[in-house]
Amino acid sequence: MSAELHAMGSATQPLPPEVDVAIVGAGIMGLALAYHLARLARDLKIAVIERGYLVSGASGRNGGGLRMQWGDAGNVRLMMESIDECKGLAQELGINLWFRQGGYLFLARSEAGEQRLVRNAELHAEVGAPTRLLAPAEAQAIVPQLDVSDVRLASFNPEDGVVFPWPFVWGYATQAVRHGARLRTHTAVTRVEPVGDRYRLQLSTGESLLAARVVNATGAWSHGLNAQLGIHLPNQPHRHEILSSEPLKPFLDPLVVDLGSGLYFSQSTRGELVTGITLPDADDGSDTSLSLHSSLRFLGHISRTLVQLMPIVASMKVLRQWVGPYDVSPDGDAIVGPSPGHPRFVQVCGFTGHGFMMAPAVGRLLARWLADGTQHPMLTRWDPGRFASGQAHRREDMIIG
Ligand SMILES: Cc1cc2nc3c(=O)[nH]c(=O)nc-3n(C[C@H](O)[C@H](O)[C@H](O)COP(=O)(O)OP(=O)(O)OC[C@H]3O[C@@H](n4cnc5c(N)ncnc54)[C@H](O)[C@@H]3O)c2cc1C
């Protein structure tokens, strides 16, 4: 095994029999947390346990979009912090993240969509995010290939951007290991049970591990471990399909989102057009399954919607099509913090279609909370107990997909 692979954990990484914090799931959330916690609290023994390979979950299957354009002040502020953090992150993690700030361009084609953009632009001005409203012709000046004939209004924030998700995950993994966390891949946690004031984790390799605190960072799979402890949270998986094209000459700066259809597309630094859309729910319920098989239905639906908005791509070749799971929280807010009835079993899930962009800030804030109890207002709001206590409110209306 090469030294570099080992630096990102491995299937043979030895684990101690007891740890202070066991993080289950090595997606962007588990790894950003492991990195910050290992840096902040050097005396803590931390293990991260991942069932598959790194980037096998949603963190390796997403569109890599990062934006401040949200409909709720808390999310706008959090994303301003997260994007700011991304500016120095390639140096900090020692890896090229392909971070490119080409902006996000939202298009509204209905009156309701138009009102959403106006309301959000006012909110962004209050919070200090540089979003501006654009007439259709101004939007077309940014992306000349768009057909804006039925666009009523657009909004643009030049500081939004895209990254390449894989090195992002690898960067956090490498640095978490460098700072002392143990990262075991290709090993599932098959059972979790309380033992006194700790938890015993049974692993698919036959080993077991005692942990003073456990973090459930298994995203769309989180209900599996929760159910074993009798924790019932309302987040549920939702299949989301996406594709990338053959490399094209660079022509597209921003990530474009059509509010009405939920279509989004951006051009990666490697030239591929990366585009996704959420399908209207399938009658057979397959959209809420964890099946990661691509569908022809998606290919037809996205092709029609994309070509209507940007006719120039009609003859573009599709190179890859894949699926990833959204972990959908019913009120649109993430689920982060101690579990009801199990304060030492901590959730970091429910990030729907925006966990990647929030991870730099969330990893740091949650690590701080685990290290010394400092609780950021967003963590209070994301408390898993809010559903049972009836305090869940829908605040966010800019969730795409
Ligand atoms: C198609 C698509 C496009 C998206 N686009 C964007 C975007 O543009 N911007 C954005 O911010 N977000 C986007 N998202 C959402 C984003 O990808 C997720 O919110 C984020 O990656 C969640 O990270 P995570 O670490 O919580 O979950 P994951 O990355 O899914 O990690 C969970 C890990 O837990 C592991 N696991 C599960 N069960 C066990 C077990 N029992 N034992 C051990 N390990 C286990 C899994 O193998 C997995 O690796 C998109 C998602 C999809 C699917």
Describe this structure in words.
The chain is of the alpha/beta class. Residues 1-5 have low confidence and may be disordered. The strands form three sheets. Strands 1, 2, 8, 9, 10, 11, 17 and 18 form an eight-stranded mixed sheet that branches. An eight-stranded mixed sheet has the order 5-6-4-13-14-15-12-16. The protein has a two-stranded antiparallel ribbon with strand order 3-7. It is built from eleven helices and 18 strands. The protein folds into two domains: 3-60 and 166-235 and 331-386, FAD/NAD(P)-binding domain, CATH 3.50.50.60; 100-159 and 237-326, 2-Layer Sandwich (D-Amino Acid Oxidase, Chain A, domain 2). It starts with a helix and ends in a 20-residue tail after the last helix. 30% of the residues lie in helices and 26% in strands. The protein has helices at 3-7, 28-40, 73-87, 89-93, 111-127, 136-142, 165-178, 222-228, 296-309, 355-372, 377-381, and strands spanning 18-24, 46-49, 65-66, 104-108, 132-134, 153-157, 161-162, 182-184, 189-195, 198-203, 208-216, 236-247, 255-258, 263-267, 272-277, 318-328, 335-339, 342-349. It is globular. Residues 24-30, 49-52, 56-59, 61-65, 188-189, 217-221, 240, 242, 276, 324-326, 349, 351, 353-357 line the site of flavin-adenine dinucleotide.
